[in-house]
Every structure is written in structure tokens, then in C-alpha cells.
Amino acid sequence: MPRARPPPPRRARPSAGAHGRGPPSSRARFSPIGAGRETATASAAAPDHRGQRVHLARLGRVLLSLLCRGGSGNHDVRTRPLSWLGSPAVSAKPRVFGAALLHVPHPHGRADATARVGVHPGAVLATICAVVFLVGVNTTAINTALTSIADDLAMGAGEGGWTVGIYMLATAAFVVPGGKLGDVLGQLPVLVIGLVIFGVSSVLVAVADSAPLAIAGRFGQGAGAALLMPATMAALRQAYPPERQGFALGIWGAAGGIAFAFGPLVGGVVTDALDWRWIWWGTAALCAVVAWVARSTLRGMRRPTERAPLDLPGAALLAVVLFAIVLAVQQGPEWGWGSLGTLASFAVGAAGLVGLVALETRRADPLLNLRLLRVPAMAAANLVTFVNACGAFGTLYFFNLYAQAVSPSTTPRPPRASPCCPTASAWSPRRWGAAGSVTGSAFAGRSPRGSC
């Protein structure tokens, strides 16, 4: 008899895993650890790259939100539920000055507390550019008019330096409180207040008949500029959607650069054709016009719903620190670097700086969120900006003095040469790269004839 065939071997059914039924590929991919060697092999053979990308994107949002929160105690992420990592219901509310600048847009387009209602972005951008141009021109126009101002008001070398330096001092002392004030009151009130202060101070400079009065007017202009600059950036952020904010801030920066370049030209031409006082008469008139326009173009912006308290002790300490250090540096050559007044000013500045750091690290809503400096990129950017500003403004100041006093030239000559600086700054890195630009600038700066 023929031998009977043995029955075919039964195929082993794949394990359903710990979570029930489903296709083998999905069970192998999503089975928990320890579900079997077969599932581990299948999972290794077909990794879920899409899931990894999702987790990386969520991790990036977490890091950016932490940066914007600035480590404030009221926003400790350790107290949030785990669903916050991917939940669209929570958005960061930073507690640092200029919060609108550091705020991370919500991934699903959730509106901010200061929503855009009836605001035309183009009109806002034009108004903001006018404000930035006005401030930038006044910042550098005085350099070419300084010789005429010193002659008319019988200024000495120290008083002439204070006329320029007091503006920067006031701006540095009040720019952080000004940004915080914009977060509390809204950008339109701060813009109008800043323009009023800037315009009234310009009138004070225009009618000045003595050096102290002119210096006081320049101090007021610096305080007004400190209110205006943070408010302009925050207003653009409110007026434009997240995908267009880069374009708006690029125009903002270009307006500032053009203003800094044209400031010496405007100052020289007006001083030579009319009188240096007309620079500030014109500034006062333009401040009134721009303030009236801003009330119309920025009227639709809502005020912030959350009002954090102002850090008045921090603002006072910051002003004391800056004034003491600038006073020591400015008067050091006249008083003597080893004199009691110079050493006392440095001591007051150092003590105030220690007190400021101690105060700001303990406050829940600090004026200066020093924790942000722990981020290497932010610390490096601030250091580079500080060094660049020292070199740029110092060079512009001494270049105009050299061209008017040391070199046998007239007033219009320095402003004609001053626009070469921003032009070279924009063109040189593209042509020679960063290393070539820095090296060339260093060699050019060895001689007053080669530096700008």
C-alpha cells in the first residue's frame, strides 16, 4: 500500500502582542519592550522616522519656550502636565522686557493677548520706519554739527563729549524700563509718550544758550529714544503674522542703518546751509507729525491683558550703575585716573552692579532676566553687539572731530565721507568674508587717513 503523506506542518500564528489584534507590521513596530525577539527585530528593521521627527519638533518647541520664559519661577515647566509637550492649548508668556520680541508663535496659530484688530500692517510699518529714521538721524547728526555747537555755546572738550555721551547714557539707562513699560501699557501709548519727550527735548536743544541746557536736552532725547526703539519692534511683531515678521524686522533694521548713514550728512548740510539749531527745530516738528499719524495707524492694537509690576528698584540701580561708570570714564582724563572722584565713581558703579545682579536674580519678574545670558548664543550676540557699538560710535565721533578740527576741511566734507562706513559694512563681508573684512578694517584703522 502506498504510504500516506504526512499532514503539512501548521504555520505558527504571529503573536498578537500585548495590545491585541492588528496587522503584524503595526504590532511589531508599536509593541512594548519585552514583547518578543521577533517584534524587536521587525522594529529595528523598520524604524519610525516620522515619529522621531515629531518628537524632535516637540523638543525644539520646549527649548524655545524655556528660552522665552527666561527661567521665571511663575512658569516652571516641571509643574506642567506632560501633555503640555504637544498640547496646542498652552503658549509661552515670557516675563522679560520686550516680551513680544522673544515670544514664540503658537504652532497652531493661536492669537496672542494683544491681537491684531483693525490694524493695517503696511501703515504700521511706514509709521515705525519714520520713527526709527527720526531717532537714527538725531543720533548721528550731532557729530558733524558738534564743532559749531561748541563754538556757539563756548563748550570745552569735556562738555562737548557730554553732549554726545549723555544721549547714549540716557538711552542705555532707560531702554530696558522702556521695553517693560511697553509690555505693561501697550505700544501705542509708549510710542506717543516717547515722541512727545523726544520732541520737547529737541526744542530744549534748539533754544539752548548754554552748555548745561543743551546737555539736558540731549539727555531728554536719549530717554525718549529709549521708549521708542523697543516699542517699534514690539508693534511690528503685533501688526504682522509670524510668517511675515522677519520681513518687517528686516525693513526696520534697514531704516535704522540708512538713518545712521544719513545723520552726519543731514547734520553737515543743515549746519552749513542754515544753522545747527534747525536740526532740532525740524526734529520737533516731525515728532508732532509722526505722533499724530501713529495715533491713527496703531489705534487698533489692544493693550496687554496681563500687567506685570514694574521693577522700579532695578531700573534705579541700572541708571546709577551706568551713570557712575560713564562719569568715571568721561571725566577721568580731566580729573585724573587716580583722583578721588574717578575712583569713587568706579566704586559706586561696581557696588551698584553687584546689587543689581543680586536683585534681579531673586525677583520673579526681573527687569533684566540675567538667566538669558546662560544661553551661549545670546551671551555671544550681546558681547559682539557691545564691542561693535563701542567701535562704531567711537569711530564716528572722532572721525568727524578729526575731519573738522585737525584736518583742514569744512563741515560738508565729513558727512560726505561718513556714508562710506555703512556701505563698506554691507558690501565687504559678501566680497571678502568675515575674516577678510575684520583684517582689512584692522589695517585701515591704523591710520586716521585709512579709517572711517
Can you walk through the features of this model?
The chain contains 15 helices and no strands. With 452 residues, the chain is mostly helical. Among the domains are: 190 residues, Growth Hormone, Chain: A (Up-down Bundle), CATH 1.20.1250; 71 residues. The longest helix is centred in the first third of the chain and has 33 residues. The relative contact order is 0.10. The C terminus is likely disordered.
List the helices and strands and how they pair.
Blueprint: H1 24-30, H2 37-45, H3 49-69, H4 99-102, H5 121-153, H6 157-185, H7 187-206, H8 211-239, H9 245-273, H10 277-297, H11 312-335, H12 340-362, H13 376-406, H14 413-417, H15 420-444
Jot down its keywords.
single chain; 452 residues; Growth Hormone, Chain: A; 69% helix
Short structural description:
The chain is 69% helix and 0% strand. By secondary structure, the chain is an all-alpha fold.
Biggest sheet character? none
**Would you report the number of β strands?**
0
Give the helix proportion (percent range): 55-70%
Show unreliable segments.
15-47, 62-117, 445-452
**Beta-strand residue fraction:** under 5%
